Amino acid sequence: MCLRVAGVTLTSAPVRSGALLAVGAMICVGSSVAVSRSIIDAPLFTLQAVRYAVAAALLLGLAAVARRPLPRPRGVEWCWLGGVAATGLVLFNVAVVRGVAHAEPAVIGVAVAAVPLALAVAGPLLSRGRPAPVVVLGAVVVTAGAVLVQGGGRTDAAGIGWALVVMLCEIAFTLLAVPVLGRLGPWAVSLHAVWIAAAALAVLGLAVEGPRAVATLGPVDLLAAAHLAVVVTALAFVLWYSAVGRLGAGRAGLFTGVVPVTAAAGGVLLGGPIPSGVVWLGTAVVAAGLVIGFGRRRANGALDRQVGPRVPFVQRINPGVGSPRTWRPRRSP
After folding, report:
1. Hey, is 72 helix, strand or coil?
2. pLDDT digits over 108-133, tens only?
3. Does the predicted model carry a pTM greater than 0.70?
């Protein structure tokens, strides 16, 4: 059974569900923009440590209720998870805060908008495959649309440098998780990355901001931390890594272009001005990029086989991966 949406043919259940999971994850992430503006004066490391600690406890509790297996990492898997936590969580948050001190928020947003193209190219290469031309073209269009939504902005050399760090951290958040997603699954990867980040940020908070910093967090800060923990971390992480497992990093990366669109829509819901015509144009371009990236392929199941080549890469760098949870190439019916 095939499903056509806006001219796009989603050829199998894994692809359909992966697309929905990716959209859900990026909507959650996009909701963080307005919330983050309310905590710019809060102690950065301490608040983020609270956020990730709450998210880790939530993930652990939900996994127990849902009876989701949480395999324990072993060997080199700890290195991959540590890399996800250090770059995609700790350094990313530092880079965003330091970046907006030197550049307008739109500049940082444009850096994130370049992620779809980077993942479209790097994801298949790490899987010992070749980037699909249609996905790369779709990523270029999505990136262009996201840039239109974000707009330009003023910056200096330091701002450009921090924007580059933000982009690299966002890419690393996905790519460093690929080698361990097969055996551990999205729940375990999310949980372990989050508690590692919480521990690292707690240490940084104590060293830089002092033990009394937590007492300076007001009700608004705590509400923001709760939203970031529940929606932007616990929920978004599981949705995103589940989407990567179904679509592959390249095609899942197309959906990061949804973030600026969601952020713009959230601003309107919170009483902000109606977006300009350029924002509407950018939204349409993002949609067009998704249509291109998920366009119907000539060969039956060609869309889904983009996921398959990732398995040899995982087995090559992580010997012993062979449990029933390991990814298998999926075929279209």
Report:
1. coil
2. 666 776 777 778 777 777 667 777 78
3. yes
> Rounded to an integer, what distance in angstroms lies between the CA atom of residue 306 and that of residue 247?
7
Quickly count: other Cβ atoms within 10 Å of residue 74's Cβ. 12
Residue owning tokens 């994801």 = 123
Residue count of the chain, please give it: 333
| Per-residue burial over 202-218, b = 16 or more CB atoms within 10 Å of its CB, e = otherwise | bebbeeebeeebbeebe
> Counting Cβ atoms within 10 Å, is residue 190 exposed (0-12), middle (13-18) or buried (19+)?
buried
Determine the average pLDDT of the residues in 277-305: 64
How far is Cα 176 from Cα 161, in angstroms, rounded to an integer? Answer: 22
Give me the helices (H) in the chain, please: 13-30, 32-36, 44-66, 77-83, 92-100, 105-113, 115-126, 133-150, 157-175, 178-204, 219-227, 236-247, 249-253, 258-269, 277-293, 310-317
321: tokens are 């991966």
Distance CA(92)–CA(70), nearest Å, equals 25
pLDDT digits (tens, 9 = 90+) for 12-38: 677 778 888 988 888 888 777 667 767
Report phi then psi at 9, rounded to 5: -100, 115
d(CA 260, CA 112): 9
> Does pLDDT of 216 surpass 90?
yes
Q: What one-letter code names the amino acid at 320?
A: G
pLDDT at residue 266, rounded to an integer: 63
240 vs 107: CA distance, rounded Å? 24
